[in-house]
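batch_manifest entry 22 of 60
target: Cytochrome P450
source organism: Paenibacillus cucumis
requested by: lab member K.T.
priority: normal
notes from requester: please return tokens only, no post-processing; we will run our own comparison against the previous entry in this batch. if the run fails, retry once and flag.
--- input ---
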Amino acid sequence: MKQAPRKYANYIPIRELHNKERQLSPFQVYAELRENTPVRYDEHRECWDVFRYEDVQYVLKNPKLFSSERNRAGTSMLTTDPPKHKQLRDLVNQAFTPKAIEALAPRIQEITDELLAPHLSGGRMNLIDDLATPLPVIVIAELIGVPATDRREFKEWSDVLVKGARDDSEEAFQELEKEKLKNIQELYAYFTDIMEQRRLKPQDDLISLLLDAEIEGEKLTEEEVVNFCILLLAAGNETTTNLIANAVRVLSEQPELQEELREHPDKVASAVEETLRYYPPIVAIGRVAREDIELGGKAIKAGQQVISWVGAANRDGAQFEQADQFVSDRKPNRHMGFGFGIHFCLGAPLARLEARVVLHTLLQRMEQIQLVPQTALEPIQSAFVFGVKEYPIQFNERRV
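--- output ---
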């Protein structure tokens, strides 16, 4: 089997996580790496891995030393550095004010109730397919301005954007790159068509707002609008789906938490934050060194990839007491589940809101939530995402 070339480093899991069981629960592996090789070079993937909280935070908060730019077509906030990054973020922030996000709460509750209704009396549902996946898809689609008839295709595009390769061969990565390129081309055509419609007839949606947004006399280009929509599609859907699924996974693995949060609903928000630390949807973030630099006693050369393992940093005992325990009301909780620094997730308030609404609703409408017995969990096929493909649950309906 040929080794995959360097540009695929972000797609390949570190060698210690090739085992499925370890992918489903990688945190002991992270602990060993954080303790024994906090900064190390991986010859196979030709990149650096960083595991300690202090080092991960240093990488993510220093864009002058560690760049987000990639050698790929298109420009989005994820792949730009200052000052371009700030310009893009200031423009799109107009659509993501706290007031604008909080105003979505009634609609998110309505969608949640509609998705749950067919399953409550039966006492069983596939959490991911029936709720955790469609909810953020519907919310993001409505925000952007995607018609309801296109949601299924919308979700399929989202899945491809975050998909990982089937194995470590160069052929598998070439196949993945080809699939992703086709996916991006389809998305460009799709969003370009919607933009043309909105230019003729603006609506109350994100594309219309972005086309009209202006800061210091400058508007987003067509390419930037499309790239932002693609970014929202990938990050908004997948991250929120896994945040919701991971939170319910914690509740089913630790049943005592269900009653604790049911009796103290004011703890739901902090439990969402603890999920982001304990079972983060994103476990690794890539950067490229801008110059030769020393980190953790290791010499990193300009141009080399640096992978910051947020999943390891979030369990660092030097930063968190009882780091391997789920503490529902942990304060302070300086996790990096949404990243850190200038690229801190723009959609974090929306993801938090959706997760809070879902958890509160599940706890009020269900009790004794548990994974369906004999379920063999399958990890998501991605090196940087932590989650499972399916999570069927059974429960007793609560009458409210």
